[in-house]
Amino acid sequence: MSISAMVAVPILLGVAGQAVWLSIALGQALGELARVVVIWGWNSVGLARASALEDGARPGFYLDSIPPRLLLCLPAAGAIALATALIPTASPIDFALMASAGMVNGLNGAWIYISAHDPRGLLRYDALPRTIVPLFGVAALALHPEAWLYSTAVLTSNVVAAVIPVVVMRRRLARAGVAYAHPTFTQALTELRAGFSAFVIGLVLVARMSLPVLAAGIASEGIGVVVALADKFIRWGNRALTPFLQFMQTSIPRGTSPLAMRIRRGVLRTIVLSVVTTIGSAIVTWSLSPVISAGEITLSPVESTAVGVVLGAIAFNSITGNSSLVLLGRTRSVAAGGTAALITLACAAYPLTALLGAAGLLLAYAAAEVCITVYLCVLLVVEMRALKRRNLSSALATAAPSPTDGT
């Protein structure tokens, strides 16, 4: 998917111009918000739950997630329709199509293949459809230079990626001779209530990703196109990191060694990954921004560094928050910290943008991510010490002689 999007950016800028391309970028930002509403935490807490299941139980677990997610498409679609009517864009049709593509992406099954440590299934049933179909849309632009062709192709690819896993899981149940019954409406609502905290964690993360580009695009086209390109690099980097991070997330609950040891090992690996991601992303963003935009937009070293810091923090926070602290029972605390970071971003965005333009807005985003990183580190240290005390108390209780010993 990232490959097709990277190829599409210079072509769309050349064919449709900056204003229409910005409409597409704004639609994608809104679509990410719609996606996280529809997926409702199944790609985080649901991922951890699925990884603990036997292989034969995963198809039914995945199919149980479809009715609740389809219910969530109703408010998401309504919000997209309202935003299309209210937000001024150069191409409302491209805005609506890309936002709808994000909503449908919330129905995909990538997380179920990751939970089973099945990279082949992830490639065949998710990555390939969402890469190949948009590439046809890019090719169509050469024959008929209309941006909606690409937007329609992206929406189609996400529909295909949502339908295929359902077919695959149903076939697996049929081969196993397992009868399947869809969850009732009440059961679907129960699942939604159970996943609310995980949904909040995902929502505030994506809101922090989408707020800068939405705010910049609405306020000023000049600032908007710069922030939109930076947003592309952040989303491409996040999408590239996601499979690795999710495999790391599932390795922590699946391990056989003591939980504290698994968490420490996972965090140490993530520190290395985060440092490499920060430095590498900053260099790649700075050097490739003029290439990706066909010379239209060049991100400054400050803006590129902010992109690197954001991606490095996202990588680190995904392990400390979505995996380690969730396993330690602090899901609500992680959600509260993410909400505080979103408020920090909202408060810092206007003054820094007024002072430094696009660089100020991206620095506000980076500062918000650093704040949540510090908060999660402190919370994890506190919880790890508490876990150590609980383990020590349990060990002492086990070793203590019973009252009847020696009588």
Automatic annotation (TrEMBL):
Keyword annotations: Membrane, Transmembrane, Transmembrane helix
Statement: the UniProt record of this protein carries the keyword Transmembrane helix: yes
Entry keyword Membrane: yes
Transmembrane segments: 70-89, 95-115, 149-168, 188-207, 213-230, 267-286, 306-328, 335-356, 362-382
Listed name of the protein: Polysaccharide biosynthesis protein
Origin species: Micrococcus lylae
